[in-house]
């Protein structure tokens, strides 16, 4: 059984009288530990795909199976438990809370998970060490560079030991060198922590570092044949 399977997933947004088809019969199988990249033009449906896989949005039709269970059949509580415990999200901006330190930002994830022991702080520190800023646990976001803030966001995504990491253009606003460093970090986490990774990116060179590359085009998902 695949870890993740999408079966003919469609998503249609309805705004007033207009129907906007964002995903059109998308089918996909992802095995545990895979590193998938998804490229595609703006508006092609990449973020919608991530939201549907991560249980942020329900599909209009089709099934999203995680570990063989249909997550779209879960009630709101079940869906939020799936989101918080099994999936880690890294968004385009680091979106750290400015009034919390690096350690507190990472520990925040535990509030919404089940992991409420005193060991949270140790885990936050361990993760900040893992992402290379173990010496900055007490820094506030404004005291950190863009790349360092991104590292905190990655540590936060790992706090509840997710089985799947979803990264939606996580390096869009970073310079090339920092972008390459963050990508190397994500790839190391995929290997060493054995977390399945789905990475949305505009950067084809980065996308090629994944083990499989897919292209989103007007709501359709196709294998990218250009991978050399
Ligand atoms: N909440 C929403 N309501 C209505 N339309 C949306 C919403 N989110 C995205 N869309 C539309 O769905 C399509 C796919 O968007 P999106 O998944 O964000 O693409 P991408 O991430 O590839 O840029 C676009 O036409 C976009 O305008
Ligand atoms: Mg997007």
CATH topology: Rossmann fold
Approximate shape: globular
Task: State the end-to-end CA separation.
Answer: 29 Å
Strand content: 25-35%
Range of helix content: 25-40%
Q: Helix/strand-derived class? A: alpha/beta
Mean pLDDT: 90
The CATH C-level name is Alpha Beta
Unreliable runs: none
Which superfamily, in CATH terms, is the homologous superfamily? Answer: P-loop containing nucleotide triphosphate hydrolases
How is the biggest beta sheet arranged? 6 strands, mixed
> Helical segment tally?
7
Sequence-ordered SSE layout with sheet pairings:
Blueprint: E1 4-15, E2 18-30, E3 35-39, H1 46-53, E4 61-66, E5 69-70, H2 76-86, E6 87-90, H3 102-111, H4 120-130, H5 146-158, E7 164-168, H6 176-192, E8 196-200, H7 204-207, E9 212-217, E10 220-223
Parallel strand pairs: 3-8, 3-9, 6-7, 7-8
Antiparallel strand pairs: 1-2, 1-4, 4-5, 9-10
The structure holds adenosine-5'-diphosphate and magnesium ion.
Adenosine-5'-diphosphate (ADP) binds next to strand 1, strand 2 and helix 1.
